[in-house]
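Technical note accompanying the year-one report. For the benefit of new consortium partners, we illustrate the data format agreed upon in the data management plan: each record pairs a sequence with a structure-token string. No post-processing was applied to the example shown here.
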Amino acid sequence: MTFRAPVRDIAFALETVGHPALLARAFPDLDADTVAAVLEAAGQFADAELAPLNRRGDLEGARYENGKVTAAPGFADAYQAFVAGGWNSLSADPEFGGQGLSKALELSVFEMVHASNMAFGLCPMLTQAAIEALALHGTERQKRIVLPKLVSGEWPGCMVLTEPQAGSDLAALTTRADPDGEGGYRLHGQKIFITWGDHDAADNIVHLVLARTPDAPPGVKGISLFLTSKFLLDEAGGLGPRNDFRPGSIEHKLGIHASPTCVMLYEGAKAELVGELGQGLGHMFVMMNAARLQVGVQGVAIAERAFQQALEFSQERRQGKAVWSSDYPAPIYDHPDVRRTLMLMKAKIEAARAICLTTGVLADLARFADSEEERAAAKARQELLTPIAKAWSTDIGVEVASLGVQVHGGMGFIEETGAAQHYRDARIAPIYEGTNGIQANDLVGRKAGLAGGAVMRELCAEMLLTAQTLTESPDLAVLGHRLALGASALEHATDWVLAHGGPDALSAATPYLKLAGDVIGGWMLGRQALAAGGSEDPWLKGKAALARLYGGQVLAAAPGLAEGLMDGAGDLESTAAGALAG
């Protein structure tokens, strides 16, 4: 099955999430023609260079031999082509060699990269996160020597957090950073699940590592962030001897086989502090928040890849008699349930894409809006949407990939069709960069309560205004009614979560995040339907059909979901594990 980057869908999504207005305000040198050219070129690169490597990468994977990691066949050359094309530096500051483009445009490009080859996309994705961390917290030396190399992509970066006993609970990490008496540190410890922690696709790799100094207090307040690189660096950025860390192995995983997930051993590796002692978790959260939004985009991307294959298969596979014609055997696309499934897959992809790109636009406004008040408002809504973008979109990725297998039927369960790979690859995204349960806890514990709940309530008010506009259009009135009920249900659920807190709110966290994603996604589709209104272009007319289907299949269930999540934690508290055993 061939892959085609969804350039037109992405361009339309950018238009409907406020990207043109953002460009006029904050990126005067970035016009619509340039955006279109970037998207088109990125799509061509994804189609021609990355997509053909996806299946082989899954089958052969990265290799670990004699203490070294070798990238999957073709990946090292593809990475060098990616760097040479300037794709790594899109939104970075021109001061460090970046192109200064919008974050939303960068996310759009990375969606095509991830869709064409998710395992490949993880490498530059983590480099983007490292760039953001060093740009905010790096020393002048780090910004002079390391940051330009990360921006260009000549040196990829990776995030080094997890240890065998410290997964989501980073307070339990034990990796040690001993002062070396020369102003630097020596790292000692073992880290696991380090994505692209070692490989041969670049000459050097930069690691940002969480560790403790010997006198650090216990818990998260004792964690600091350190920079170390595969080869020691001189003052001019030249590469010296090999540093004292190495891969111990790579993991054998359900999916993303071409992404080397390394066990890393730090055996006195020379390192330097990033930011302030004891502030490592906060500094690392700059990386993590950037990566979380990118992972949300991964969810959109793998869903798009699975959808495209399912749609193509549905037009080729013939079974049974058609309902709307006398064809026999008919393409399975002509069976109503298959067509409903494919349309719902497409609608959820477009909703998730719009949520992620909206969050990217807000990230740009938080930096470049004219007034401090507007920058603060954009930042607050960005923070509110980030856990939703990550968790809801990656859940959609798994759901759509699973439905893709279902559309294929028995052929989807056979590895040769490739449908199973998308399902296997998709499954990691709800787990890494903070599990979706952690995102839900963050939403109810912190983000829903921003400004006393005003940030979410203002969002609900905007959705109600859109709902009113939809009701004024005869063919969208039912959608408007369902969006209004959904937005009201979300507002009511928000009030309940903020009033209760504790175990009750935490027990409701995951359904609350789903409710928020479902309703906000419906709002995004409603806006797209309005933007496409009046057009005779079948592709644009299809936006209203997708929005209406989503309204009936998803938004209509929102009030019930809101009611159910308010049951509280009583049954959870009273049910011991033994009661669940056979």
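Partners are asked to follow this layout when depositing records. The chain is about 60% helix and 10% strand.
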